[in-house]
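Residues pack. Consider this:
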Amino acid sequence: MKKFLTATAAGALVAGSAFAAGHSSEIKMGVMLSFTGPIESLTPAMAAGAEMAIAEVNEAGTLLGGATVTPVRADATCIDSAAATAAAERLITSDGINAMVGPDCSGVTGAVLANVAVPNGMAMISPSATSPALSAAEDNGLFFRTAPSDARQGEVLANLLIEKGITSAAVTYTNNDYGKGFADAFQSSYEAAGGSVTLSSPHEDGKADYSAEVGALASAGGDALVVLGYVDQGGAGLIQGSLDSGAFDMFALGDGMIGDSLTATFGSDLDGTFGTAPGSDNEGGASFAEMATAAGIDGTGVYVGESYDAAALLLLAMAAAGSSDPADYVGKIEMVANAPGEMIMPGELGKAIEILAGGGDVDYSGATGVELVGPGEAAGSYAEYVIEDGALKVVGYR
């Protein structure tokens, strides 16, 4: 259960301008994702997904009497909490944002939440910060996420290994909140299901050589190497080192490793590799993929749908509250995400705003079948990926 703080002095100062901010003809939405760093290949499509929702609302032209929504991008870096905090402060103090999509990686998300969002009373919805530790963050009710916690993903990935007859595995994880939380959740579930973790070891990103880490993992043994890292950083380095040395030829991957750059780098050398990432086989997913394709975006990419949904929820909450001030609309986010109300799919944000303006209720399902449980947590489901003939393919959902 999340912890709630009392209002801070900084929050009170922000509240002093609440009326003006809540009734502005321009609404600014921060899109704070890691445009540089270990997942930079994923974030352009994620940002485009969030901005699709913004463009859709602008086209409808009915939010808060015709206010225009402007996206303002900022680099979360994924790994540099000080830089992410400074960027978030600029979004609020210089750019004057009314809401924030992001950040994406768990460590910087926790830093931005504690150091910027809570003191300034800013609502934020992350499309991809999945550390279980964020469930207990002190957030004043300001933090939400459209991707489920890794407490659940660890269980799903562990079950996949058991189902495939892999009963012993070594684990390498990126040395941060995301990696440690995911690794702990995986190991707990895997061992409970009868599996054996031979070694669970952190790795640092940004190294040129991972032979020492690969050697330790190989010495511990295991039928597979579970890689809970980043596709553009250390995770890829561990895989390359394993292939070069012959230490492992079977890999199981977490969501941070699922991306086109994985197969662009390794191709069919990873055939048979499998992994998980948030995804659902819902009606909205198919329609969102079509919308995204028409806009020149790969709507099936990891966290693209979650990014669209994060922006959509913030905008619909504003419509429900009749205000773009976080103090007014943050209490409406779970209301628009869950029943009761008319089901809202991708492409129907204008319709949803009309319903809300008329005093009605909506149940936003969106691109990923959004359902918020507990304080801002996404119920979520996972797609099972495999690499076949050098290409990532979704073969099921859990």
Summary: The first strand starts at residue 26 and ends at 33. Confidence is low (pLDDT under 50) at residues 3-21. Residues 9-148+282-372 form a domain with the Rossmann fold fold (CATH 3.40.50.2300).
